């Protein structure tokens, strides 16, 4: 019995949470690699380990081909059938050879291959565990901080990374801080570094935070119809329900604003307007302009424009700081219509009056009747 091999398998399997079968496969490849180095030849070697005893057998093999190009690796079909009359093209002919003793060089080679295969197995495990969590929120503890990214542990021997471009403006993380982000991508083809890439700036981040915070959304009583964001600054979310007993806006805001405030706190104080979805474009635009009050609204479906009038005292609120309110309301309008051609125009009562005067002047209407 080869106790050393069995010990290695148990230790690695328990420490890395990798199935024993995977470890045995890695060991077989490792021993085969060490064998080829020992013989110092370009040969193909297969190793079979008895998973109960740890003992192993070693075989040299040749691929059966029509025409031999690499004599140390290939054999013709005609020659192969002297060994096995049932062999076909693409099969292998094998003969058992003496298994190597693990001297220093063989052991070192085996270790390198084992570590490589273990890393590959670990990455396979990560892919399996997180493949169904794409678009969901991952949370963990910050492990490493660099100039361009933050790496955090998310459990199951997995790490996630968020690059600077996917962080909110001005947010700063420290080692051991708790962090959340939406799983955006799972990288399968990288040799090192985190495979899980997360994002804190996407609309999905806001949606998932509300799903975690608001039971009515989690239970699908309230539906999130549209989300638009200026990440870390301001956002608007339109909600709807078919249950007349439920106030969808109130459910999302919570008692004394507790629910929406919890979401805002996670996003560095991002201001969040929760509005009611309406199929009617006019009413939805009025809702989208909140908290600003709308005096009147004109929808021109031929020109794809919506002209919103507000009182002079409400103009600053309607536009918002750096134009945020009107910009987000405009995005909601385009999402509502599923058409980027739509434009939202804001003007005051005085502005619309001046516009009408110019319109009449351009018509060049004469006070005297035409004879």
From TrEMBL:
Compartment(s) where it occurs, according to its Swiss-Prot or TrEMBL record: Cytoplasm
UniProt keyword NAD, yes or no: no
UniProt GO molecular function: DNA-binding transcription factor activity; RNA binding
GO cellular component, one term: cytosol
InterPro entries documented for this protein: KH_dom-like_a/b (IPR015946), KH_NusA_2nd (IPR058582), KH_sf_prok-type (IPR009019), NA-bd_OB-fold (IPR012340), NusA_N_sf (IPR036555), S1_domain (IPR003029), TF_NusA (IPR010213), TF_NusA_bacterial (IPR030842)
Record keyword Nucleotide-binding present: no
Pfam families membership: KH_NusA_1st, KH_NusA_2nd, NusA_N
A GO biological-process term: DNA-templated transcription termination
SUPFAM superfamilies per the UniProt record, alphabetical: Nucleic acid-binding proteins, Prokaryotic type KH domain (KH-domain type II), Transcription factor NusA, N-terminal domain
Family statement: Belongs to the NusA family.
Record's protein name: Transcription termination/antitermination protein NusA
């Amino acid at each position: 019995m080869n106790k050393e091999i069995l010990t290695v398998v148990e230790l690695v399997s328990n420490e890395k949470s990798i199935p024993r079968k995977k470890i045995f496969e890695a060991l077989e490849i490792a021993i085969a690699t060490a064998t080829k180095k020992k013989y110092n030849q370009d040969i193909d070697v297969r190793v079979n380990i008895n998973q109960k005893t740890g003992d192993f057998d070693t075989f040299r093999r040749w691929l059966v081909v029509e025409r031999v190009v690499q004599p140390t690796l290939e054999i013709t079909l005609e020659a192969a059938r002297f060994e096995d009359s049932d062999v076909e093209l693409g099969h292998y002919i094998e003969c058992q050879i003496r298994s190597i003793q693990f001297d220093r060089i063989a052991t070192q080679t085996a270790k390198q291959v084992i570590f490589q295969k273990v890393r590959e197995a670990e990455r396979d495990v990560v892919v399996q565990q997180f493949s169904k969590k794409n678009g969901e929120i991952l949370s963990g503890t910050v492990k490493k901080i660099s100039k361009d990214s933050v790496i955090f542990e998310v459990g199951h021997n997995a790490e996630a990374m968020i690059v600077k471009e996917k962080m909110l403006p001005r947010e700063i993380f420290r080692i051991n801080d708790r962090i959340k982000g939406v799983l955006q991508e799972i990288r399968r083809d990288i040799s090192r570094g985190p495979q899980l890439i997360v994002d804190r700036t996407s609309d999905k981040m806001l949606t998932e935070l509300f799903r975690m915070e608001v039971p009515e959304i989690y239970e699908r009583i309230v539906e999130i119809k549209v989300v638009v964001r200026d990440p870390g600054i301001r956002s608007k979310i339109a909600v709807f329900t078919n249950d007349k007993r439920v106030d969808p806006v109130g459910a999302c805001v919570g008692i004394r604003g507790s629910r929406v405030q919890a979401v805002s706190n996670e996003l560095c104080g991002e201001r969040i307007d929760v509005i009611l979805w309406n199929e009617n474009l006019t009413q939805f635009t009025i809702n989208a302009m909140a908290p600003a009050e709308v005096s009147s609204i004109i929808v021109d479906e031929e020109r794809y424009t919506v002209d919103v009038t507000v009182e002079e005292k409400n103009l600053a609120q309607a536009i918002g700081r750096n134009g945020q309110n009107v910009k987000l309301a405009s995005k909601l309008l385009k999402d509502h219509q599923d058409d980027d051609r739509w434009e939202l125009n804001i003007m005051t009562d005085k502005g619309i009056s001046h516009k009408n005067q110019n319109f009449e002047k351009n018509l060049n209407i004469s006070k005297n009747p035409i004879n």
